[in-house]
Amino acid sequence: MSELVTIGITCFNAKATIARAIKSALNQDWQNFEILIVDDCSLDCSVEIIQDVIKNDSRARLIKHSVNLGPAGARNTILDQAMGEYIVYFDDDDESLVSRISEQIQCLLSFEKRTGKELIACYASGRRLYPNGYEKSLYAIGSRQDNQVPHGSAVADYLLYFKQNKSWFYGAGTPTCALLARISTIKAIGGFDSNLRRVEDIDFAIRLALNDGYFIGTSKVLFKQYVTEAFDKNPKNNLNAEQAVVRKYFEYLSEKNKYYYAYNWPLIRYFYFNNKYYHSAVTFIKIFIKYPLYSMQHILKTGSRRLLHDLRISK
């Protein structure tokens, strides 16, 4: 019999989407799984919908938080309650294809057998769907077979201040909604930082990288990510969380003379998303004065893609 996989779904005010997410979990072609759904104090009727979808199905269980802990805290609850050998996280507004678990486990086991490595995070490729019909490919980090596999502290450098290795494919980064790993791997890294209300997935990946972890991915698209609005998905919350992550790694970044860079670069995005283009430009100039070549390479690599993306989602 195949090993048990824990499917973890966190839910907060997701009445319009949670049923679809759960059904995509129930329909997985992997035969041996449990589904743990944590409702993080929803204020809508999410709990009632969850109970209706999973009634009479012993594979699924609802856990209700009495206090809102945020995504990291909810994922840690799943981790604490999980019985599986592996854990895979689904978001409450995503839809996973039926072969997602089997494809990711095959990818993980193949890499383990080939390399003998431990502490591996396997990410699924996906598609992000916007309300206007625009779709964006979310190719998984480490999913290109002709590239070397991202690993070690150099991945942390990429996540903290965008230092890239030309031989690596970084794809859509390290979102938890695409993650599958051995539960022992997640626990070895200490789970998720419940002090963070956003970008806790980046923080987890940084810690995995600093522990010499490996980042692999499936080339096959295995989930659909539907763009939805939520009260905590805003530029200010993102900025606060991104800068909190940078502060966590003050000593590491200071040794590389990149703390100022890593701490202030998110301000460029924050001002841009708030239509404060003058402030965004001034912030870039200040960073440019300290890191002229590095900051120019960064803006050239990301700036045009950002503008093109914004044009497409605004149509």
Q: Any idea what the shape is?
A: globular
Q: Please write the string of helix (H) and strand (E) elements.
A: EHEHEHEEHEEHEHHEHHHHH
Low-confidence residue ranges: none
CATH topology of the largest domain: Spore Coat Polysaccharide Biosynthesis Protein SpsA, Chain A
**Approximate helicity band:** 40-55%
Averaging pLDDT over every residue, what do you get? 95
- Regarding CATH, which class of the largest domain? Alpha Beta
Q: Considering the protein shown, what is the CATH homologous superfamily of the largest domain?
A: Spore Coat Polysaccharide Biosynthesis Protein SpsA, Chain A
**Structure classification:** alpha/beta
Explain this structure to me?
By secondary structure, the protein is an alpha/beta fold. It has 2 domains: 5-226, Spore Coat Polysaccharide Biosynthesis Protein SpsA, Chain A; 257-314, no CATH class. It contains 12 helices and 9 strands. It has helices at 18-26, 46-54, 70-81, 100-115, 153-161, 183-188, 200-210, 235-248, 250-255, 259-273, 277-290, 292-314, and strands at residues 5-11, 33-39, 60-64, 86-90, 94-96, 120-129, 135-138, 179-182, 214-226. Strand 6 (120-129) and strand 7 form a beta hairpin. The longest helix is centred in the last third of the chain and has 23 residues, at 292-314. The protein is globular and about 65 Å long.
List keywords for this structure.
single chain; 315 residues; alpha/beta; Spore Coat Polysaccharide Biosynthesis Protein SpsA, Chain A; 2 domains; nine-stranded mixed β-sheet; globular
SSE topology:
Layout: E1 5-11, H1 18-26, E2 33-39, H2 46-54, E3 60-64, H3 70-81, E4 86-90, E5 94-96, H4 100-115, E6 120-129, E7 135-138, H5 153-161, E8 179-182, H6 183-188, H7 200-210, E9 214-226, H8 235-248, H9 250-255, H10 259-273, H11 277-290, H12 292-314
Parallel strand pairs: 1-2, 1-4, 2-3, 6-9
Antiparallel strand pairs: 4-8, 5-9, 6-7, 6-8
Helix pairs in contact: 1-2, 5-7, 8-10, 10-11, 11-12
